[in-house]
C-alpha cells in the first residue's frame, strides 16, 4: 500500500526539465514583446529635430560612418556624399542592415542591422540636418489599408519589370539584383520609392503620390499574406521555372509511365 502511494506521488511530479522549458519560453515571449515595444516607442519618442538627437547622431556617425563618408558626410573615394540624401535614405539603408557595408560589392546586402531603431533615427536626424532631403514617411501611409487593386496596377506598370509581378525579385546586370519585397517593413518600401537606392529609380510625389505609394504597400502586403490558390508557387519567379518544371517533372512522368506500360504489354 505504501509502495503504491509512493508511486502515485512520483507519477504526479513534473519532469525536472519542464521548469527549465517554461522559464525559457517565458524569456523568449517577454524578450520578443519588449523588443517590439521598445522599437515602436523609440520611433514615437525620438524628436528628429531636437539638438540632442542630432548631436547623438553626429557622434554615432563619426564613430561608425565617417571612415567611408567623411567626417562631415561630404563623401570620400570609398563612399558617396550623404549631404542632401535625407532622413529616409539613412533609415532605409541602416534599418535594413545594408549599411554599414560588410564588404565592397555590386550592391549592399540585407543583413542583421547593427543599430537600434533609436540609434538609426538619430543617425537619420543628423544627416537630415546637413541639407534638405526626403524625410521618413508619415505613419498614415504605412498601414497597408489602401486600395490593393489600384496598388497592384501601379506596381505592375512601374516595378514588376525588376521586382517580378509577384514581388519575388529578379536579376539585373553586372551581378546586381532587384530584391524580393516579401517580409519588408512598409516604412522601408516607402523609403525605397522616394530615395531610389542603388539601381532603383526615384518615384517622388510627382510620379507616384503618397496615397498611391500606400496602395502599392497594401498590394505587396496582400500578396505576401494571401494563400497561393494556384498550388505550388515554384518561387513565383515566372514562366522559366514553370516551363522547366513541366519539361523535367511533367515530361519525365509521362516518359516513365510510357516505359512502364510498354514493359507491361511485353
Characterize the structure shown:
- The protein has 266 residues and is mostly helical.
- The chain folds into two domains: 19-136, Cytochrome c-like domain (Cytochrome Bc1 Complex, Chain D, domain 2); 146-250, Cytochrome c-like domain (Cytochrome Bc1 Complex, Chain D, domain 2, Orthogonal Bundle), CATH 1.10.760.10.
- Helix content is 56%, strand content 2%.
- It has helices at residues 2-11, 16-45, 51-64, 66-69, 86-95, 117-130, 148-158, 160-163, 186-195, 210-225, 239-265; strands at residues 170-171, 177-178.
- Strands 1-2 form a two-stranded antiparallel sheet.
- A hairpin with a 5-residue loop joins strand 1 (170-171) and strand 2 (177-178).
- Helix 3 (51-64) crosses helix 6 and helix 5 packs antiparallel against helix 6 (117-130).
- The radius of gyration is 26 Å and the shape is elongated.
- The N and C termini lie far apart (74 Å).
- Mean pLDDT is 84; it is low at 31-42.
Keywords summarizing the entry:
266 residues; mainly alpha; Cytochrome Bc1 Complex, Chain D, domain 2; 2 domains; two-stranded antiparallel sheet; 11 helices
